[in-house]
Amino acid sequence: MEQGRYEFVVVANRLPVDRVSSEPGEEAWARSPGGLVSALEPSVRQSRGAWVGWTGAPDDDPGQFELDGVHLRPVPLSAEEVDQYYEGQSNSTIWPLFHDAVEQPVHRRTWRVTYEAVNRRFAEATAELAAEGATVWVHDYQLLLVPRMLREARPDLRIGFFLHIPFPPVELFMQLPRRADLLRGLLGADLVGFQQSLAADNFLQLAARLLGLEPEGERVEYEGRTVTARAFPISIDMSEIDRLAADPGVQAEARRLRRELGGDRRLFLGVDRLDYTKGIEQRIEAYGELLAAGAVSNDEAVLVQVATPSRLRVAQYQQLRERVEREVGRINGEHGDVGKAPVHYLFQSRTREELVALYLAADVMLVTPLRDGMNLVAKEYVAARRDEQGALVLSEFTGAAAELDGAFVVNPYDVDDLERGMAAALRADPADLAARMRRMRSHVREHDVDRWAREFLDVLGGPVSSLSR
Ligand code: GDG
């Protein structure tokens, strides 16, 4: 096969760019915001690297182009492929199953066939771009089959894979049709990275159970190669959040928000994609119960929930939206007053500046997923609190809970425990809160997203590991 010239290739469902408005017939792109992009882009740029991914729009084929020294290789998807590979197999089968099946996974043969075909297209595009002996880093659950496909085409490559979501226990994984193909897909990599060691353990146990392999520590021999499975907990760009939190405009916005919400009312905040894994319903229900029991009054506190629209065409997300909106309406109806709603629900996307202003304004940040690979919102909240104030209520089922030991840890399935955690955070002594926040801030400062990328690439080896310093 003909080889390309790129020493480092990142492969992800999405390209790290968004289309920006331009003259008709002209293409204009801007780098997408977000920690992953800012963590990987410097290595990609320095190594004259490339990025393979979808533009995010169906039937869109702009062809390859360069942006800020990065070669971008779009993988076009038809509307039907978006439906079957992305909304179907990725987000209606794998996503719920890998999150403890908190919603029933849907299994369809046509989705699996399209998923495989699209994974092959990603693998072929990558095989064409990568130089002899190049390093390739494949990301996430949409591309589980790519490492093996790529290895078959290009045995000379160093292949890393990182899973951003949890890896389920063996019993749950076993429900997946064609489960061994997915596992073999991942075993095509030299290094498989997870958010938590729990996930790496699940993966190694599965390799033993399903394929009869014999893992030793974090390594397993497969087809004459060694595959390493290890946790690399992802993080955020602390300096970006810190800069926004220090911005006078952002601070003024935080003060304005507090004023608008009613002066001295204490602010509970949730910020999530509207996703059933995030525990939004449970959190709102718990807040309603605190109001009903008189443990918190509407004069004393308010809940703001930003629920960013996500996967709008998937039925389970539409149903979740209806349930959440009904519950918010009920609580506001029962416990609100004219000009004083207990719950402010925003089904909207906000700018980074607005999010950080909300983090600064919030007395209690609620991060209560039923299951979450990591959860970056928890780390962003901590990063924003340069004032060492504020409390974090954090589900024990997030990757972040393994790291942030100053949080008020809760079990989101237990509404009493959620209420206990929320009330404890609200009533905590300011000196205790400051000590907790200091511990969490020093952890996030020491473990930011640059370190995450560097550690993964160092263990993976190959041409970029020396560059990533
Ligand atoms: C997956 C895994 C893992 C949210 N609303 C808005 C907005 N956001 C930003 C947040 C944060 C990011 O989106 C969400 O990251 P999370 O980690 O919380 O959750 P997922 O989207 O599910 O991410 C997760 C992550 O991958 C990384 O590996 O941690 O476990 O599920 O950065 O701030 N950003 C803007 N407006 C919004 O309205 N601008």
Estimated radius of gyration: 23 Å
Number of spatially distinct domains: 2
Alpha-beta classification: alpha/beta
Distance between the termini: 32 Å
Number of strands: 17
Instruction: Point out poorly predicted stretches.
Output: none
Here the CATH topology of the largest domain equals Rossmann fold
| Largest sheet report | 9 strands, mixed
* The CATH H-level homologous superfamily of the largest domain: Glycogen Phosphorylase B
Q: How would you characterize the overall build of this protein?
A:
It is a single chain. The chain has 469 residues and is an alpha/beta fold. It has 2 domains: 6-234 and 450-468, Glycogen Phosphorylase B (Rossmann fold, 3-Layer(aba) Sandwich); 238-446, Glycogen Phosphorylase B (Rossmann fold, 3-Layer(aba) Sandwich). Helix content is 45%, strand content 19%. The chain contains 17 helices and 17 strands. The strands form 3 sheets. A 9-stranded mixed sheet has the order 5-6-4-1-7-8-9-11-10, sandwiched between helices. Strand 5 and strand 6 (70-74) form a beta hairpin. Helix 4 crosses helix 6 (179-187) and helix 10 (280-292) crosses helix 14 (415-427). The longest helix has 21 residues, at 109-129. The chain is globular and about 65 Å long. The mean pLDDT is 95. Bound molecules: GDP-alpha-D-glucose. GDP-alpha-D-glucose is lined by residues 164-165, 234, 271, 273, 306, 308, 349-352, 355, 372-377, 380. GDP-alpha-D-glucose binds next to strand 12, strand 13, helix 12 and helix 13.
